[in-house]
Every structure is written in structure tokens, then in C-alpha cells.
Amino acid sequence: MSGEIYALLVLVHLLLFVYWLGADIGVFYSARYVQDTTLTLESRRTALRIMGWVDQLPRYSLVLMLPVGTTLGVATGVIALPASAALVTWLIGAGWLWFVWAIHHHQGTPLAERLRSVDLVWRFALVAILLVTGLTGLAGQGPLVADWISIKVALFGVLVFCGIMIRMRGKPIGPALRKILSEGSSPELEAELVRGFDRTRPFILGIWFLLLVAAFVGLAKPNFG
Fold first, then answer.
1. Is-above-0.85 flag for pTM?
2. Mean pLDDT per 10-residue run, the chain (225 residues)?
3. 33, 104, 122, 196: most buried by Cβ count inside 10 Å?
4. In terms of C-beta density within 10 A (0-12 exposed, 13-18 middle, 19 or more buried), how is residue 137 classed?
5. How many Cβ atoms sit within 10 Å of the Cβ of residue 32?
């Protein structure tokens, strides 16, 4: 890999971190206006559209972290796999990226729900793969040959898990919002909406914290043995 391509990948890696964390904070802030009962339904609908669009940036960033991070790890030798393995992660990433786009593009349709179910199964499998790979790397086994990359891989697994929990614990948000925006507000629906957002908040904050930890580990590159 040439120095220019490597530098470009490092830049993309940094930008993915920036857009993931920055856009996630934007989504978190926009959610306040979606829940604001003092606003008109049209204003809340506009806030929801903004929130939904911005929310795609962290989703895409998460997906692209897998192939970009793997390619950098293989290029620097901290992941002892052939270059073909990095190519495989790009193919997986492209398919996963399409899933994320299609779920958003076809939201509210049976197709989107089927794709969402497949995506959820994949994310659970990925969490298991990342955690096992990271922990075995810390034990001196597997393709991860440095402690810091093992920690980052395990942290990425926890980040994906937090995203799963946000989806599962925030499941009532969608139906409550649709009813509010189509049928009008009611105390019961508003309470359900607020409860859904409250249940996701710990995992959102957890993602922010874990992203900062992962960034620090990537810079400090700690080694325990």
C-alpha cells in the first residue's frame, strides 16, 4: 500500500470518528424538539425529518469503520491477515451499507422490517465475533498481534451492542410518534414517547464514552506485555 493511500485511509478513519460522534450529538439534541409538546405537530415533524437524516451519518460511520479499520490494521501489521481479508471486509461493508440505506429508504414498509430483522441478527453475530477476537487477541492468540488493537476491536463490539440496545429499548418510539403525528397528541402517547427516549439514553451516552476511549487507545497504543 502506498503512503498516499495509507494517509487517505487514516484521514477517512478520523472523519468516521468525527461524523459518528458529532452527528450522534446532533441526533440527541434534535430529539428534544421531537418530544417538545409546546411545538406544533408540523414543527415536530420537521425536527423528526432532520433527526432521521442526521442519524444516518453515525449509522454509515459504524458500518465503514469495519473495512477501514481492518485495512489499516492489515497494512500496519497489527492484524496478521492477508490483504484478501481486508477485501472481504469491504465486500461485507458494502452489503451492510446497502442494508442500512434500504432500511431507512423503505422505512414503514414490510421490506424494511424484513431487512431490519436480518440486520439485527447480523449485528448480534458481529458483536460475538468482535468480542471473541478482541479477547483472544489480549490472550495472545488469533490474528490481533497488539494489545491496543485487541482492545479497540473489543470496544467496537461493545459499541455495536449499545446500538442494538438502543434499537430494542427504543422500539416504542416509532409507533408512538406515528400515532402522534397522524392522530394527534395525547398524554398516554407522549408518556410512551418520553419513556422510549429515556430508556435509550444510557446506551447513547455509553456510545459517546466508548468512542472517546477507543480514540484514546488508538492514539496511546497501550501494551500490557
1. yes
2. 87 94 92 91 92 92 96 94 93 95 89 93 97 95 95 97 94 89 89 93 95 94 82
3. 196
4. buried
5. 11
